[in-house]
Amino acid sequence: MTDYFEIDFLDVECRKSGDAITIRYQVGKFWYIHVVDGGFQTTGDSIIAHIKEYYDNPTHINHVILTHPDGDHAGGLRTVLENYRVETLWMLRPWLYAAELLHRFPRVTSVDNLERFLREAYPNIAALEEIAIRRGIYIAEPFQGAHIGEFAVLAPSRQRYLDLIARSECTPASDAKGPLIRLSSLLFKSVAYVSTLVRAAWGEESFSPEEVSAENEMSVVQYANIANTRILLTADVGREGLNEVIGYAPFAGLPLPGVDRFQVPHHGSRRNLSTDILDRLLGPRLAAPVERGQERFTAAISSAKEDEAHPRKAVVRAMIHRGARVVATEGVSTRISQNAPARPSWVPAGSLPYPEDQEKD
C-alpha cells in the first residue's frame, strides 16, 4: 500500500479563531486517526460529523492531542472523548508537577494547595482528565522527544514547560512574577498593541514586538515525515518555543530549513514569528515571487472568517516571501494531503493573494 496522509483544518467559525485538526494517515500496513485540538465546545459535533463522513465512520481513534489549555483548542475535545474509543489522550497536566514546582510559589503553603490552584487555573484540562479517567482512556505526556504515532514532539521540553507554569498569569504568584498574588486579578490590563497598515515592497517584513502568553508557549509542536513529506504542526507556539523546535529538529530527523506542510502558528498572528526564525525554519526570503503552481511548500492557517484580526497581512506576506502557497479556513474546512483518497465533493482550497500592505507598529 502507498503511504498517504490527509490533514483537515476544520472550519471553527466564530468571532474568534480556533483550531480543530483531524488527521488520517497510512504508513506501511497500518493506518491511524489523530485529532489535534477541538476548537470551542460547539465545534465537537462538527469534528464527529467530519470523521464519520470522510474517515469511513470509525469507532476508534488512535490519538487525541490537546496542544495547550486555551478554550479555542480544548472545548470540542470533550465531545470527541465521549463519543469514541480513544487509545491515548496526550496532554500536559500542570498539577502533576506540583511537588516539583512548590518552591517556585512562595505564597502557596502545600503541594495539595498548589494542585488545587492549578486545577482551578486550567479547567479545560481538568474537564478532559475527568472524562478520560471515567472512560478508561490512557493519558500520556507530550514532552519533547515523545512519539505520537508517526509524529515526534519537538516542543515543549519538560523544563521549559515547568518554567512556563511559573510564569503564567493564570497561576499563583511565583518567584518568576514577583510579589503579586495573581496578575490576572489586577485592576488594569496591558494596552493592546495598535497597528496600522502601510504599503510595503516585496520582501519587507514586520512582526510585533509583543510576546505570546505562557499558555501559547506551552503548545505541543509535532513533526512527521509521511509519504516523503515533512509536516510541522505548531498550534499557538511563540518565538521561544519555535527556537526550541529549531534547536531540537536535528535530533528528530528534521533538517532545517525545509518544511513541506506548515501550520502557521496562532491563526497567523504577528506575535509568534520573526524573520530570523522563518529564515531558519522555512528558508530565506526569495528575490522574487514564485509562479502560481510552483510553490515550494503549503502554509495552512486556521482563521475564522469573522475574526478580523487573523491572519495578519504581514504573516501571509512572510510565507509567500519564502515560496509558500498559503491557505486559510476562513469559513470552509481545508485539506492538505499527499496520496490521499479522493473526495469528489471537495475542491482544492484557494490560495491567499499576496498583500501589498502590512501592519506597522
Give me the side-by-side strand order of the main sheet.
6-5-4-3-2-1-15
The arrangement of helices and strands along the chain is EEEHEHHEHHHEEEHEHEEHEHEHEEE
Question: In which range does the helix fraction lie?
Answer: 25-40%
Number of domains: 1
State the main characteristics.
single chain, alpha/beta, 361 residues, 7-stranded mixed β-sheet, Metallo-beta-lactamase, Chain A
Short description:
The longest helix has 13 residues, at 123-135.
Description:
This protein is an alpha/beta fold and 361 residues long. The protein has a single domain (4-340, 349-360), classed as Ribonuclease Z/Hydroxyacylglutathione hydrolase-like (Metallo-beta-lactamase, Chain A, 4-Layer Sandwich). It is built from eleven helices and 16 strands. A seven-stranded mixed β-sheet has the order 6-5-4-3-2-1-15. A seven-stranded mixed β-sheet has the order 7-8-10-11-12-13-14. A two-stranded antiparallel ribbon has the order 9-16. Helix 3 runs parallel beside helix 6 (123-135). The protein starts with a strand and ends with a strand.
